[in-house]
Amino acid sequence: MQSTLSKATLGRLPLYLQFIRTMNTEKVSATQIAKGLGLGEVQVRKDLASVCAAGMPKVGYPVQALRQDMEKALKTDVPISAVIVGAGKLGSALMEYDGFGDYGVEIAAAFDCRAPSDSFSRGRVPVYPMGQLAPFCASHHIQEGILTVPAASAQSAADEMTAAGLKAILNFAPYPIRVPSGVTVVQENIALSLAYLHMTASETQRQEEEEQYGNQNL
What we know:
- By secondary structure, this protein is α/β, with parallel strands linked by helices.
- It has two domains: 7-73, Winged helix-like DNA-binding domain superfamily/Winged helix DNA-binding domain (Arc Repressor Mutant, subunit A); 80-187, NAD(P)-binding Rossmann-like Domain (Rossmann fold).
- The chain is built from eight helices and nine strands.
- Helix 1 packs across helix 4 (63-73).
- The longest helix has 27 residues, at 190-216.
- It is globular and about 65 Å long.
């Protein structure tokens, strides 16, 4: 088991965790996970070995032990409170998403420049004006935030988030925000992800057509 995990491995662990949480068996192998997720078996085997020492050759991993080790590696056993900045369509959709709790994340509140002086709620999440961001984060000891504003507002909103003491920002805005040193930013670009999916699907189709053409000429 490794004391530190690579960013790539950490990125794949939620996929593994979600997969094994659906299992009703006592054991699971790297081969099963790889086939179930459509991933390379060698990579899955390395990832599992880096977080759990309970695996046995030709036997696999105890599902409960593997799940607990993954949850520990991802720190889902430690509750995290986060805020959303931007209560538009995307921000509202995230407020109503129930899956955050599966990974120990609670959306404590949302903030929007258009919010009235009195708070209102979207689902179970209260929405406040931006002026209340800093005092709310300070009083609730919040250091993580999700940014879901238009590109034109992204940098100014990010500045307010870092001024409020946030140390990690998940940025859905289509704009590369600048932050002070010591603040971590993860950029989520849905359009770029769709373009990547299209490229991957096109390449897969091309390979299948080439293989089919080659078989016809045998």
